[in-house]
User: Fold Leucine-rich repeat and death domain-containing protein 1 from Molossus molossus.
Amino acid sequence: MDTLGIHDDTAILSSEKNQIQKIPSEICNLKGIQKLNISSNQFIYFPIELCQLQSLEELNISQTNGRKLTRLPQELSNMTQLKGLDISNNAIREIPRSIGELRSLVSLNAYNNQINSLPPSFLSLNKLQQLNLSGNNLTALPTGIHNLSSLKDINFDDNPLLRPPMEICKGKQLYTIACYLQRADERDEKILEKIFKIVANNITEANFQFLCQKLNLVISETDMSTKSTVSLSERVQQALDRWKMDSNNLSSTALRDQLTRALTMIGAYEIMDKITALKLFTCALKF
Assistant:
């Protein structure tokens, strides 16, 4: 069987472990379908036709024995009644940015994929109670994961997690994970402030101009007029604070990485040596 036979009055449809390669367009006629199991089949890509099933509450497209899917369409967000989604045992690399539109989602099984990050909208899944992301490529969890207040059953096993480290996640307690991430954010914020001070106290006037170019920082006429009355370190500190405020959608870690790349590009090696020493010191401290 390389296609799926359907009837208009179908509410529950299961066709797992077949050789199905495509979904017929007639599936759009299933106005009342609630459960669909098409796991372990031979889809070349995620059947986009499924995204028109706005009554669907449960979808299982895991591929234990079938052809592995590598991506999910953004149109997945059209399935607004979806409560249970199983995409496990595929080769999916990323969760769609629009995942947060699935406001009814209660259960998400996405284990044994290649997912390396969670999009910001993921934190809008307020009804999510069960989440299994084990066996993926996650290195960090979003700080705002504590906002998923309904989440009770979590599994992040077998991920190369650094933030938080895997030992924090083994207990599968959201509160513990959230506390770690909050402390990590506070630490990263303090480290960024110290890096700003290192730059402000050590950069030359010429390198400051180059740094502003690399960070797309515009030097205003006001800045130019105060050049003779305000010290270089003060002007640098003010510029970096303004850059941080303008980049409020970026984390402290992302800002730090962007700043250190810019410093390397302009050849501020003495400053980079001091920042490296700071990083080594903070890494040596017990978190």
